[in-house]
Design brief:
- By secondary structure, the chain is mainly α.
- Helix content is about 60%, strand content about 0%.
- The protein has one domain.
- It has helices at about 10-15, 35-40, 55-70, 75-80, 85-105, 110-125.
């Protein structure tokens, strides 16, 4: 029986359990669980909430970005978070870059800008 205070659906609970070692590694390497990918591709965000009601379509997209990231599917998470033009989208994009920094962020425009700023600040201090 579903706990009436649990906002997640049984499908969401199952999805979270597919990766019991989420974030155990400091850096994501490789692709995630194929079972999780298949489920994420077949579910819509409202199906992950016990109420089946989303606050907004963007809330659902943000939830999906987080779940793709949870399962180490970085490209899928990145596509979604890049499409969210809000503070929430920026949050998920930053989480993705922080988690995947050693593998993908070096070529990202934000990384290049940060590196340029650090070098410029270093030169001013010398």
């Amino acid at each position: 029986m579903q706990d009436p205070t649990d906002p997640l659906s049984p499908t969401a609970r199952h999805l979270l359990k597919l990766n019991p070692n989420a974030y155990a590694a400091l850096v994501a390497t490789g692709s995630g669980s194929v079972e999780a990918r298949d489920l994420l591709e077949s579910v819509n965000p409202a199906q992950l909430l016990a109420s089946g009601v989303l606050g907004s379509a963007e809330d659902g997209d943000a939830m999906m970005a987080g779940l793709w990231l949870w399962h180490d599917w970085l490209d899928e998470s990145h596509v979604i978070s890049q499409g969210l033009h809000s503070v929430t989208g920026s949050f998920w994009h930053a989480m993705l870059l922080a988690y995947a920094a050693p593998t993908i962020a070096v070529g990202h425009p934000v990384w290049r800008e940060m590196r340029s700023s650090m070098f410029a600040r270093h030169r001013r201090l010398q």
